[in-house]
Amino acid sequence: MREIARTAGTPTFVYSSATLGGHFDRLKEAFAPLDPLLCYSVKSCANLSVLRTLAARGAGMDVVSIGELQRAVEAGVPASHCVYAGVGKRDDEIIAALEAGIGLLNIESEAEFENVSRLAGQLRISVRCALRINPDVDPKTHRYTSTGKKETKFGVDLERARRFFQKYGQDAFAKLEGLHLHIGSPIYTVEPYVEALTKTCALIDELAMDGVTIRSIDLGGGFGADYESDQSPSAMDYADAILPIVLPLKQRGVQFFLEPGRSIAANAGVLLLSVLYTKQSGEKRFAICDAGMNALLRPSHYGSFHFVWPVQPSNGLVPPTRSSTLAMPGLLAQDIVGPLCESGDFLALDRSLPPLSRGDLLAVFTAGAYGMSMASRYNSSPLPAEVLVTGGRVALIRERETVEDLMEHERHVTVLL
Ligand code: LLP
């Protein structure tokens, strides 16, 4: 980490190819009886080199915009191995996905289906479509990332789903043949999956009574990652709960897709920062770093916990666990904050850490997913660099932005009206 900081500077996201690949392989193994297409969720960490690492292992991609589809294709994944979700697909995005030969379009509403049908008909391109259903299940996660409850904007409720197939099931070009679910993220117990899939199977039986055959099921993502020690079920735990429910469908020839993001990328990455200053205000101690919510929004936006530890602790202490309140001697309660102009600009609050000083390097753990992909340029902060470690090879996979980059699109002013 010291060498990476010396050569790439900070703030920098550092990813491990071995960890990315290891998580992918474990999911593949756990769900092998379903032989699913494992579509890595590009939104979690979209760097081309990360996508290439997973593409090399046979990953498909879960995309939510035409930009993500372009990234997937650029990384070597054929569009036919990509599934495309999202409540607000623009016409130009639908057209581009159809022309690219998208593997599966996940449809979120009647209005969207009618638009896809119209565009596919005009282009005379057939496309496989899955209806995203909203099973009204509580995934017991942050309300911002809870997507399978009725009151959220996602999918079509189960009552309407049956009518949906009756109304649109015979479309000439938009071939409605599958079901899609993604009920939230992260989901730390298996029960919400069990509940959602049990309801899905009941719907499939009802559809069968209407003469509709479901040919594919996209199970979505949402598997947890270990932000704190052993907090998350393993890939095998999720599979053990899910497989018994859906294996009978596999035996009937149904094709499966999975869309894991966080469970592959989160703890394949750390955010490497430098301490700029330390300061005290009353009893409170702060370590002010060279990035905060601009690089990693999750603590500020969702109140998420990320373990933070110095690269070289001054007292040599190595924490026994990732717990936030360590009863170890020589630690001081500190807030790890960024340089931005808001009190919401923090990475960790009231954390027991070894004494810190100017120039110390800090690693913010489990930052590989929804770190760089949610980073912003607030306060004219150039985006961090990204580095990928593959065995002994350390490669800069995204240059640090410069302030020049930030101003580039503003230099030329065009009078419009
Ligand atoms: N499929 C769909 C349709 C999704 O919307 C998502 C995530 C995934 C798959 C991947 O979920 P995962 O396996 O990564 O949990 N920014 C938030 C997470 C938002 C997730 C949005 N959708 C965070 O930082 O926690």
Overview features:
12 helices, alpha/beta, globular, eight-stranded parallel β-barrel, TIM Barrel, Lyase, Ornithine Decarboxylase, Chain A, domain 1, nine-stranded mixed β-sheet, binds ligand LLP, 2 domains, 417 residues
Structure at a glance:
By secondary structure, this protein is of the alpha/beta class. 30% of the residues lie in helices and 23% in strands. The site of ligand LLP has 23 residues, from helix 10 and helix 11.
Report on the architecture of this protein.
The chain is α/β, with parallel strands linked by helices and 417 residues long. It has two domains: 2-11 and 267-409, Lyase, Ornithine Decarboxylase, Chain A, domain 1; 31-260, Alpha-Beta Barrel (TIM Barrel), CATH 3.20.20.10. The chain is 30% helix and 23% strand. Strands 1, 11, 12, 13, 14, 15, 16, 17 and 18 form a nine-stranded mixed β-sheet that branches. The radius of gyration is 23 Å and the shape is globular. The protein starts with a helix and ends in a 6-residue tail after the last helix. The structure holds ligand LLP.
Give helix % range: 25-40%
**Strands, count:** 18
**CATH homologous superfamily classification of the largest domain:** Alanine racemase
The whole-number mean of residue pLDDT values reads 95
Task: Report the total helices.
Answer: 12
Kindly, what is the distance between the CA atoms of the first and last residues, rounded to a whole number of angstroms? 52 Å
Low-confidence stretches: none
Shape assignment: globular
- How large is the radius of gyration? 23 Å
CATH-defined architecture of the largest domain = Alpha-Beta Barrel
Give the structural class.
alpha/beta
H and E order: HEHEHEHEHEHEEHEHEHEHEEHEEEEEEH
CATH topology of the largest domain: TIM Barrel
Largest beta-sheet characterization: 9 strands, mixed
User: Domains counted in the coordinates: how many?
Assistant: 2
Bound molecules: ligand LLP
* CATH domain class of the largest domain: Alpha Beta
What amount of the residues lies in strands? 15-25%
